[in-house]
């Protein structure tokens, strides 16, 4: 198999969309391809292109609550899988197709025939169960289905995390009661799961996004104070690092020191538990 260099990537033009939407989709798809750092095998690039074409066709009539074409969601989920989690071409194919069985006329067998058994297994793991049970039971059953795939293919859970992260990033267009429901589910299930999987940045972002919904005043207050005290906090971090750097330089070894402030959720949680006020070095 030959490798395809990045400058040889060709774009798919979804001709059935209006011009404005078509350009938006092309930019999103191009960003996805550019996020894949290593050169890909021709077979992988072909699979991604075919998955994209199938998803474009399947989601043609669908739009998100934001008003944007629905296809932008699976494209962005695929990009998160690559750029923020570190997954490869197979995960990209599955992420692009993760909603087609659940939300369109595409069948799992269609995916199996076109992309093989492994992709079909992952997409099936990402497809919610069809049930008439109560909503709470339904969510529990869906999560149980996802977690069962950990033994077979951990990519199901990782793609699910990317899916939830993008949904949380774009949750502002949803009704308030749905935002609260999704934020609660994310806080109790997905953020702890991200922590267990070692996805610490995603876990932190999910917690902050949940707090922004459930405690908007507290979130905005802390965010504003963090912005106001940014210079003070940076000086504090530099002062803390200085003696470490001095001694490490003396050892003549390669090293890297990183300093960062607590997340908004972490600060809020500490203030709540210890009943203390905001401090610049929290």
List strands and helices in order, with pairings.
Elements (H helix, E strand, L loop, with lengths): L2 E2 L14 H17 L4 E2 H17 L13 H14 L3 H8 L3 H4 L4 H8 L1 H10 L8 H14 L6 H15 L6 H21 L3 H15 L1 H13 L1 H22 L12 H11 L8
Antiparallel strand pairs: 1-2
Brief rundown of the structure:
By secondary structure, the protein is mostly helical. Helices cover 67% and strands 1% of the residues.
Would you kindly provide a written description of the structure presented here, covering whatever features stand out?
The radius of gyration is 22 Å and the shape is globular. It has 2 domains: 7-168, Hypothetical protein af1432 (Orthogonal Bundle), CATH 1.10.3210.10; 215-282, no CATH class. The chain has helices spanning 19-35, 42-58, 72-85, 89-96, 100-103, 108-115, 117-126, 135-148, 155-169, 176-196, 200-214, 216-228, 230-251, 264-274, and strands at residues 3-4, 40-41. Helix content is 67%, strand content 1%. It is mainly α and 282 residues long. It contains 14 helices and 2 strands, in the order E-H-E-H-H-H-H-H-H-H-H-H-H-H-H-H. It has a two-stranded antiparallel ribbon with strand order 1-2. The N and C termini lie far apart (53 Å). Residues 5-11 and 130-136 have low confidence and may be disordered.
């Amino acid at each position: 198999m030959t490798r395809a260099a990045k400058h040889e990537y060709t774009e798919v033009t979804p001709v059935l969309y209006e011009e404005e939407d078509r350009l938006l989709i092309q930019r999103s798809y191009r960003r996805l391809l550019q996020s894949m750092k290593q050169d890909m095998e021709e077979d992988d690039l072909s699979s991604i292109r075919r998955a994209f074409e199938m998803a474009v066709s399947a989601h043609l009539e669908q739009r998100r609550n934001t008003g944007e074409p629905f296809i932008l969601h699976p494209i962005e989920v695929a990009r998160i899988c690559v750029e923020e989690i570190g997954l490869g071409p197979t995960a990209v194919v599955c992420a692009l197709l993760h909603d087609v069985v659940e939300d369109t006329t595409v069948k799992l067998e269609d995916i199996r025939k076109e992309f093989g058994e492994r992709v079909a297994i992952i997409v099936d793991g990402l497809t919610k169960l069809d049930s008439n049970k109560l909503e709470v039971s339904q969510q529990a059953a869906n999560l149980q289905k996802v977690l069962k795939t950990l033994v077979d293919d951990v990519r199901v859970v990782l793609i699910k995390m990317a899916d939830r992260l993008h949904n949380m990033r774009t949750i502002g267009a949803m009704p308030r009661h749905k935002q609260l429901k999704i934020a609660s589910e994310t806080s109790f299930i997905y953020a702890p799961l991200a922590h267990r999987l070692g996805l610490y940045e995603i876990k932190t972002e999910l917690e902050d996004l949940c707090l922004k919904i459930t405690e908007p005043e507290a979130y905005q207050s802390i965010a504003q104070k963090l912005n106001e005290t940014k210079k003070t906090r940076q000086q504090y971090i530099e002062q803390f690092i200085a003696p470490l750097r001095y001694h490490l330089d003396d050892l003549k070894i390669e090293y890297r020191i990183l300093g960062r402030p607590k997340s908004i959720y972490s600060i809020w949680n500490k203030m709540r538990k210890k009943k203390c006020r905001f401090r610049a070095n929290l």
